[in-house]
Write a structure and sequence with these properties.
Residues 1-25 are annotated as: Disordered. The chain has 315 residues and is of the alpha/beta class. The chain has helices spanning 17-21, 53-60, 82-87, 104-114, 121-130, 146-158, 176-191, 203-209, 227-233, 249-252, 269-281, 296-305, and strands at 4-13, 27-37, 42-46, 68-73, 76-77, 89-92, 164-168, 195-199, 212-217, 220-226, 237-242, 256-258, 261-266, 287-293. It has a domain at 236-294: Alpha-Beta Plaits (2-Layer Sandwich). Bound molecules: adenosine-5'-triphosphate. Adenosine-5'-triphosphate binds at residues 13, 27, 29, 47, 49-55.
């Protein structure tokens, strides 16, 4: 049985009164999203701002209703069997929400109580140690730094030992140390059998951690495949250089340009030679020329730049 199953999920946010008055039918945030995440997978959900990632996670968490379609967790429908589905999930939210009146241990005990677990201190201690919070157990939530609060949110999501862990942008604005602590711990839980669903903007994180990835664009799944296959789909190399000059159109249309830095896909040495000679002929002076292997960001940019038609990639 799939750990998480999204079946033909669509979501339209209704228009505001003013929008309705102007004939605006509302916003289609998700369009026929279907995929399964198997037990034990480390799955990445990627997409630019506004692609629909948080909407999909909110529906999974039972916080938002889909306009059409079904979502289930370990076979429990998130609408009709909310409590059973919710018990399977440990959700680390994007926003820092916490009760300022409790200390860290009390916060975690309260959350355990919410799931009906009376004596949970052994697991709470293990969570505190693994997340580098052991010396903060008695600190009031108000006294914690932003990074520490985020660690508590992770511990809070895991108090009931959920088999499925959902992390919505957990490392946005988080320092390197916390990222490493968090990834080591989540990777360990995944090795021990937990399923992990991660949404992130950090593509190198997704590349390093996720065995399979779905990419969303404007509410549609535009790629769904093993990370290794997605990487194979990219041109295998990238030619990178700096220039102040304007590129000829036939090169510019394939280029990724960030300020003075230009990156062009190139399959092999012959193609690199070809690109360099085109640049020479066009009178484009280049500096700091180097080659690098394509990464997930290249795949992502390719897909996001592509036309609207969803690209069906089988698992
Ligand atoms: N409560 C809401 N009411 C109306 N529109 C909404 C609401 N929540 C989200 N949207 C819209 O739905 C679309 C998808 O938003 P969503 O937050 O799911 O995207 P996202 O992929 O999570 O983006 P980000 O990476 O910025 O978090 C966006 O166009 C957004 O403006």
């Amino acid at each position: 049985m799939a750990a998480i199953s999204f079946q033909s999920v669509s979501k339209t946010y209704p228009p505001s009164r003013t929008q309705r008055a102007h004939g605006n039918p509302g916003l289609r945030a998700l369009e026929d999203v279907s995929f399964d995440i198997e037990e034990g997978e480390f799955f990445g959900l990627l997409g630019p701002n506004g692609a629909g990632k948080t909407t999909l996670i909110s529906i999974l968490a039972g916080l938002s209703r889909p306009t059409a379609g079904q979502v289930s967790v370990h076979g429990f429908d998130v609408q009709t069997h909310f409590a059973d589905a919710r018990r399977q999930l440990g959700i680390v939210p994007q926003e820092l929400v916490f009760d300022p009146f409790f200390n860290v241990r009390e916060t975690l005990r309260l959350q355990s109580g919410y799931f009906g677990i009376a004596r949970n201190d052994d697991w709470i201690d293990e969570l505190l140690t693994s997340l580098g919070l052991a010396d903060k157990a008695d600190a009031n939530m108000r006294q914690l730094s932003g990074g520490m609060k985020r660690r508590v949110l992770v511990a809070q999501a895991l108090v009931h030992k959920p088999p499925v862990i959902v992390l919505d942008e957990p490392t946005a604005g988080v320092d390197v140390e916390l990222r490493q602590t968090l990834w080591q711990f989540v990777a360990r839980l995944n090795r021990e059998g937990s399923t992990v669903l991660l949404t992130t903007h950090y593509l190198e994180e997704a590349e390093a951690l996720c065995n399979r990835i779905a990419m969303l664009k404007k509410g549609r799944v535009v790629a769904l495949d093993r990370t290794s296959e997605l990487l194979k789909a990219a041109a295998s190399n990238v030619l990178r250089f700096k220039t102040d000059a304007e590129l000829p159109w036939e090169l510019a249309r394939n280029a990724r340009i960030t300020g003075r830095i230009v990156q062009l896909p190139a399959q092999n040495a012959l193609e690199v030679e070809h690109l360099l000679s085109s640049l020479r002929q066009a009178g484009v002076p280049v500096e700091d020329v180097e080659m690098r292997k394509a990464d997930l960001e290249d795949v992502f940019i390719d897909l996001m730049a592509g036309e609207q038609t969803p690209l069906e990639v089988a698992r």
